[in-house]
Amino acid sequence: MKSALDEINQFLSCETPDAWIEEAAKPENLALLLTDHAHCEKKAASTAMTLMFRYVDRPDLLNKMSRLAREELIHFEQVLAIMHERGFEYGHMTPARYAAGLRQHVRTSEPGRLIDVLIIGAFIEARSCERFAKLAPYLDQPLAKFYRSLLKSEARHYQDYLFLAESYAGQPIDERVAFFAQAEKELIETPDEEFRFHSGPLIRQDAA
């Protein structure tokens, strides 16, 4: 797993800021963290299903996204079970600006649209994997074990998205990946008003 994490850390243009880790590790934020994590898993499954419905003529995509959707829904159920055990209620949350901030750059014509959506999927999965690994040492043992258990599948999801993007592009995608790497870096490092699983560091209320 270390080699996969090393690859992901090389793929991402920045590490999660320490300020975000400190916020995520606060006991009073655990319910919020798990609730948004559950939403992220559900959204990931929805994204995979949307791709399956939109691109019905691409067998590789259908197979990989079908598997990904099933795994993300299992993760969703697992997070809900953890929340139930701890007495946390799952409810509606406003989304982080992270995914929308990446998707605003998606091209409108094909195959550029598909390539961009797949690259964004790779970054979202890679960042999730990186944050699972970063958070685990600061969590209680059962939750840390669960987060570490997610690393393998999340790393594979990142690889699947990137493989599909490279396959369907028919040409190198390095420049496009670099573009989204910079956009993702800015979203991760720029302060946010609300704490979320994919947010940047929280804006301090006492900041000038």
TrEMBL record:
GO-annotated biological processes: tRNA modification
A Pfam cross-reference name: MiaE
InterPro entries documented for this protein: Ferritin-like, Ferritin-like_SF, tRNA-Hydrxlase_MiaE
Top-rank taxon, per record: Bacteria
A GO molecular function held by the record: tRNA 2-(methylsulfanyl)-N(6)-isopentenyladenosine(37) hydroxylase activity
Family annotation (Gene3D superfamilies): 1.20.1260.10
PANTHER family in alphabetical order: TRNA 2-(METHYLSULFANYL)-N(6)-ISOPENTENYLADENOSINE(37) HYDROXYLASE, TRNA-(MS[2]IO[6]A)-HYDROXYLASE
Protein's name in the database: tRNA-(Ms[2]io[6]A)-hydroxylase
Phylogenetic lineage: Bacteria, Pseudomonadati, Pseudomonadota, Gammaproteobacteria, Oceanospirillales
